[in-house]
């Protein structure tokens, strides 16, 4: 202020009154011009108010748009949503996600949103198995399936990503409408950026195929355990006249206490005694002769596919391929038609009971083939108690105080658990008395130990 006063005094000392008046008129316009200025100012203020109101309206509409289109709903709403996106009845080009979730307990929607990276996190699902005979650590991947974890509830799920152009209602209908312990439970479906996200029950131990690729042929009691789980699922499906159409090792997923069937994209529910398809359904190497002919089949086709899958579990190879290498035989349809069933591919050390079981499940004629309910009562599925090895899961091993090693490992960092749990020194003991589920995969029951989101092993 002192500086400004000095400047004014210097200005007055060097200017006469006329100059001061001229300067004042320049600095302070007349009343008329002042009124005009006030009118202009009022006009600008009114325009600013209008612009502010307009912006508030836009902000309000943006706020409304911020509410997402993901909601909880029953199975009927989920199926309606799936049919709408498949029939292009809704705009699939929206920038925000939309969908219906069935699981209210474990999946937390925030303001109508269930966004990856915010409400749910996706991680590449790399499943690791240990080979007891070597230090090699093979890895497998589900491909389009990711490990998903809800950001609030910490629920771990499997999330299958399907491009919209390849998605069809059959991918979710059977899993949504029919619930069973040995069928992977569907939690919900979302559509975002032309991709359908299917959330379902997670298989901590990976698929039987990954187990075979990593560890080789499975032992008898492992095969019996997996087969009984699959038969329970098939018995339920077949009681509903549903044909899975794609029973194979990669569609049998292992969990800490059970095995479940996945991938129902080819499944159909029969309305007549025989289903006559318009196209060939299934994976060629596991197909039954009647499916290859495309003249009609029923639920017994799944039983045949289970039999071929058991041969794969016994030997480490699908049927036919050792006698007819894929390099020389690009297609096995003719071979299946002429030579089925592949009884010559049964493992040489197969027990008599299991061989009889396979003969019943691989009978060429569907009429002579046993049903899932009949096979559940077969001698091979119910061996004498003295022939059944002691099987305990990783979870129960953690509770049992007699297993000090596992109990101590549970307190170690994940990286130490990863390197010690299957060390070569302990592998022999674990192989003799160890858990079926430990041998089926290192991740079986593992998620019940690890707290928080997956670490660097999944990235």
TrEMBL record:
It comes from the Eukaryota. InterPro entries: Kinase-like_dom_sf, MAP_kinase_kinase_kinase, Prot_kinase_dom, Ser/Thr_kinase_AS. Its cofactor is Mg(2+). It is an enzyme of class 2 (transferase). Gene3D superfamilies: Phosphorylase Kinase, domain 1, Transferase(Phosphotransferase) domain 1. It catalyses: L-threonyl-[protein] + ATP = O-phospho-L-threonyl-[protein] + ADP + H(+); L-seryl-[protein] + ATP = O-phospho-L-seryl-[protein] + ADP + H(+). Its EC number is 2.7.11.25. Residues 32-63, 364-389 are annotated as: Disordered. Keywords: ATP-binding, Kinase, Nucleotide-binding, Serine/threonine-protein kinase, Transferase. Residues 375-389 have a biased composition (Basic and acidic residues). It holds the Pfam family Pkinase. One of its GO terms (molecular function) is protein serine kinase activity. Residues 131-381 form the Protein kinase domain. Belongs to the protein kinase superfamily. STE Ser/Thr protein kinase family. MAP kinase kinase kinase subfamily. This is Mitogen-activated protein kinase kinase kinase 8. It comes from Paramormyrops kingsleyae.
């Amino acid at each position: 202020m002192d500086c400004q006063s000095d400047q004014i005094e210097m200005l007055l000392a060097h200017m006469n009154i006329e100059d001061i008046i001229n300067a004042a008129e320049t600095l302070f316009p007349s009343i008329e011009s002042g009124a005009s200025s006030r009118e202009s100012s009022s006009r600008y203020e009114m325009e600013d108010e209008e612009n502010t109101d307009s912006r508030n309206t836009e902000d309000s509409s943006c706020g409304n748009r911020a509410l997402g289109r993901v909601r909880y709903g029953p199975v009927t709403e989920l199926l309606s949503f799936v049919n709408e996106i498949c029939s292009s009845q809704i705009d699939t080009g929206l920038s925000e996600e939309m969908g219906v979730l069935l699981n209210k307990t474990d999946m937390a929607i925030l303001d109508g949103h269930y966004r990856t990276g915010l409400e749910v996190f996706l991680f590449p699902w790399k499943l690791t198995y240990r080979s007891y005979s070597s230090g090699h650590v093979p890895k497998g991947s589900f491909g389009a399936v990711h490990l998903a974890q809800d950001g609030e509830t910490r629920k771990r799920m499997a999330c299958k990503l399907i491009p919209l152009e390849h998605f069809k209602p059959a991918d979710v209908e059977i899993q949504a409408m029919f619930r069973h312990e040995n069928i992977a439970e569907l939690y919900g479906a979302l559509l975002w950026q032309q991709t359908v996200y299917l959330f379902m029950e997670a298989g901590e131990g990976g698929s039987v195929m990954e187990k075979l690729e990593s560890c080789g042929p499975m032992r008898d009691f492992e095969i019996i355990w997996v087969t009984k789980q699959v038969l329970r699922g098939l018995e339920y499906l077949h009681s509903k006249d549903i044909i899975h159409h794609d029973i194979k090792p990669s569609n049998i997923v292992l969990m800490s206490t059970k095995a479940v069937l996945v991938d129902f994209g080819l499944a159909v529910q029969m309305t007549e005694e025989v289903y006559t398809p318009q196209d060939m359904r299934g994976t060629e190497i596991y197909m039954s002769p009647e499916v290859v002919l495309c003249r009609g089949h029923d639920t017994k086709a799944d039983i045949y596919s289970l039999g071929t899958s058991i041969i794969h579990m016994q030997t480490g190879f699908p049927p036919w391929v050792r006698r007819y290498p894929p390099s020389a035989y690009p297609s096995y349809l003719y071979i299946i038609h002429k030579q089925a069933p592949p009884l010559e591919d049964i493992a040489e050390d197969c027990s008599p009971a299991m061989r009889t079981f396979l003969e019943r499940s691989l009978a060429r004629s569907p009429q002579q083939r046993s049903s899932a309910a009949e096979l559940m009562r077969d001698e091979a599925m119910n061996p004498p108690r003295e022939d059944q090895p002691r099987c305990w899961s990783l979870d129960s091993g953690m509770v049992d105080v007699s297993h000090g090693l596992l109990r101590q490992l549970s307190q170690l960092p994940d990286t130490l658990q990863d390197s010690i749990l299957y060390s070569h020194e302990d592998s022999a003991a674990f192989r003799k008395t160890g858990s079926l589920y430990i041998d089926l995969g290192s991740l079986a029951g593992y998620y019940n130990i690890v707290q928080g989101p997956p670490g660097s092993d999944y990235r």
